[in-house]
Task: structure prediction
Amino acid sequence: MTAAERGSSAGRPAGVWGRSSDVGGLPLEGVTVVALEQAVAAPFATRQLADQGARVIKIERVDGGDFARAYDTGVRGGLGTHFAWLNRSKESVALDLKQDEGREILADLVAGADVFLQNLAPGAAARLGFGADVLRARDPRLIVVDMSGYGTRGPYRDKRAYDMLVQAEAGLISVTGTPETPAKAGSPLADIAAGMYAFSGTLAALVRRGTTGRGASIEITMFDAVAEWMSQAMYTTLYTGSPPPRTRLSHPVITPYDAYPTSDGVDVVIGVQNDRGWAALATGVLDRPDLVTDPEYATNQARVRNREKVDAIVAGVTSRMGRDELLRRLDEADVPNASLNDAHGLIAHPQLAERDRWREVGSPVGDIRALLPPIAFADAEPRMDPIPALGEHTDAVLRELGRDDTAIAALRSAGTVA
Result:
């Protein structure tokens, strides 16, 4: 059976895909991805491929699976929040890759795949026999995506690379926080950045293969991804000699651009990016048209030099208004603004409700709420199939590979599969 056949709805095992068979027109239908993955970065990449219709076969350890399953038990007391976020719409196959039979099964799966993506420690996949050179020698059309913290070469090759560590090493923490205290980003941005580049790199490789017939070997590192995201700060440092200062919520080179108080104790974020915006704020909200022409405030550079004075003027006015009144006046004056929401505010956000962004997704602990992914085609809803239990699809996939019930029972008895 070809990868395209196995990725089509006709080739899927009965009962595996839930309602996805009713969704048509997704761009990656017919694409099969085999993912030897764990944690966050690689699962984020493959979940996005699954969102757009790809069949993703997730290879997990027989002894507990992806360790992100047990990061916490925040989803109804039995499922890790990271795992729930990152692993819907996938098939879980549990293999012991230390056994010859486990590696043979993985080889069979890769032989029928379009994409093989892995984020084991550098060199580990190659030692198992699944290095990019070996795999692509067998199948030049295969797209191999290797993900790691720092890459397969260089002095940091074998250095541990967790999200916070990479944020620190790549400088992100240095520009986040208060003037006194650096802080890591609250979301795992190093993992997310690497996952996004692995997703987009895979899409680019699929497009190129469609025109040339050639597969690809792609290396994605968390460090490179965050370094790219640090480019503005890096260029500032490179060409001025001084890194941008940490400025809490404010912007190092734009003012006013910060959170400001209201009379009911809830801050509102105001972001003025140019002198026209300052004029709108000064006349429409602050009732201070004189500030538009005052040389201490008329230009952004002048306002940055007088940041404390500017912030005091703005806060002196906003602190006398309730949040709703301030937001209304800012909107009426066309001054960019936002509520300073927490996670509760996001969950209850009217924009998500009005645009019907919430869905129910099946899981081993029952249906849970999840957001639609950001990429939305007008004529096809992203697939939102269940989050798999460990090894939930092992038997079905083995049958696709030609193993009968007797062989599967023997594999299970030997601990090769779970």
Remarks:
- Confidence is low (pLDDT under 50) at residues 1-23.
- The chain has 18 helices and eleven strands.
